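Late entry, evening session. Most of the bench is empty. Finally got around to the prediction I had been postponing all week. Sequence below, unchanged from the version circulated by S.P.
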Amino acid sequence: MVRRRGAEWAGFGLVNALALVLGGRFTGPGVQSAWYQGLSQAPWTPPGWVFGVAWTVVMVGLTAFMVRATRTRRLVAVFALQWALNIAWNPVFFAWRAPWAGLVVIVALAGTVVGLARLGGRQAVWLVPYLVWLAIATSLNAWIALFN
């Protein structure tokens, strides 16, 4: 049991870390780019280092959720959709420079995380940091879409 749990932690941890790596690759110069720096930012935009800390906490919580939740085909399918949307937001927003399309993606992402929470029962508590961070990130994306 312990060995299996360790393998699950490692497996889901790697899958979630891969999402961060791919998202980062698709972001390119991202927040350092002249395009992004020239945008009107929400007054509550946190300093850059907060994003790395937040996503690390989110991915640890998501990994714990997937290890502890009863995995059904539906839960795994929603997890996979969440994973793809999480990665997709980066090129949509940064490479395509499409804040409105990014807003659509991040709202869909939030919906998939809510779906995971509903499927995960009591283990949904592990998704609270993800949902909080998505609320913040969605508000930041919405500001940029509305005021640029």
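Two things to note before I forget:
The domain at 2-147 is CATH 1.20.1260.100 (Ferritin).
The mean pLDDT is 92.
Will write this up properly tomorrow.
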